[in-house]
């Protein structure tokens, strides 16, 4: 019984070390863009290759940060995680992943294409930050708006669109769809 308690204690300590290491890595990644911006704005003859090199570079009036980590962690920094790499794909040279869009129109009558284009023009005029996507999947014309990674962003867009176009409010809702990245 004492052996089992000792084993569990060591396992818990190992798990805690892993959690702390992961937390430090995530903090480093989160701060990476800030440090990258600071490093690129200062006058360097040689730009740092990685966040680890950037943090370890001595500059007048600044401290030096030393990070100790396994080579595997150092190599993994800056790459898309395994979980996300499977979600991101390329279609026609455009990076896409599963996300959310706002459906503003769906119709299958003779005037559906014209109606969808009319709504797209109105949305582009009132909300130029939102990209409109008109699609046809027989027999329906659909107008989708935006590329949202989170449901919360899409819900906020729904609120804005319903406020701007109250006559369309019944037809406006969030749908899951492939979204474009970096546009």
How would you sum up this structure, described in words?
The protein has 183 residues and is α+β, with helices and mostly antiparallel strands. It folds into 2 domains: 2-79, no CATH class; 89-180, Sporulation related repeat (Alpha-Beta Plaits). The chain contains 6 helices and 5 strands; from the N terminus they run ααααββαββαβ. Strands 1, 2, 3, 4 and 5 form a 5-stranded antiparallel β-sheet that branches. It is elongated and about 65 Å long.
Overall 3D form:
elongated
Helix content: 40-55%
| Count of spatially separate domains | 2
**Beta-strand level of the residues, as a percent range?**
15-25%
Uncertain regions spanning at least 5 consecutive residues: 33-45
Total strands: the figure is 5
Rounded mean pLDDT is 79
Classify the fold: give the CATH topology of the largest domain: Alpha-Beta Plaits
According to CATH, the homologous superfamily of the largest domain is Sporulation related repeat
Q: Give the helices and strands as they follow along the chain.
A: HHHHEEHEEHE
Task: Tell me which CATH architecture of the largest domain applies here.
Answer: 2-Layer Sandwich
Which radius of gyration do the C-alpha atoms yield? Answer: 25 Å
> What is the C-level CATH assignment of the largest domain?
Alpha Beta
Number of alpha- plus pi-helical segments? 6
Domain SPOR: 94-176
Pfam families: SPOR (PF05036)
GO molecular function: peptidoglycan binding
Protein name: Sporulation related protein
Summarize the structure.
This protein has 183 residues and is an alpha+beta fold. Helices cover 46% and strands 22% of the residues. It has two domains: 2-79, no CATH class; 89-180, Alpha-Beta Plaits (2-Layer Sandwich).
């Amino acid at each position: 019984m004492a052996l089992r308690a000792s084993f569990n204690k060591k396992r818990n300590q190992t798990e805690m070390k892993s959690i702390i290491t992961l937390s430090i890595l995530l903090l480093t990644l989160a701060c990476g863009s800030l440090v990258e911006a600071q490093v690129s704005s200062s006058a360097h003859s040689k730009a740092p290759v990685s966040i680890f090199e950037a943090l370890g570079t001595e500059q007048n009036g600044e401290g030096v940060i030393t990070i100790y980590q396994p080579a595997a962690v150092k190599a993994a920094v800056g790459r898309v995680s395994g979980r996300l790499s499977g979600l991101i794909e390329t279609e026609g040279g455009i990076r896409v992943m599963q996300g959310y869009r706002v459906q503003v129109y769906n119709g299958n009558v003779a005037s559906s294409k014209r109606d969808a284009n009319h709504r797209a023009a109105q949305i582009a005029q009132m909300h130029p930050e939102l990209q409109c996507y008109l699609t046809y999947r027989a027999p329906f014309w659909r107008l989708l708006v935006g590329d949202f990674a989170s449901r919360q962003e899409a819900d906020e867009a729904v609120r804005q669109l319903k406020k701007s176009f109250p006559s369309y409010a019944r037809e406006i809702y969030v749908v899951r769809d492939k979204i474009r990245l970096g546009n």
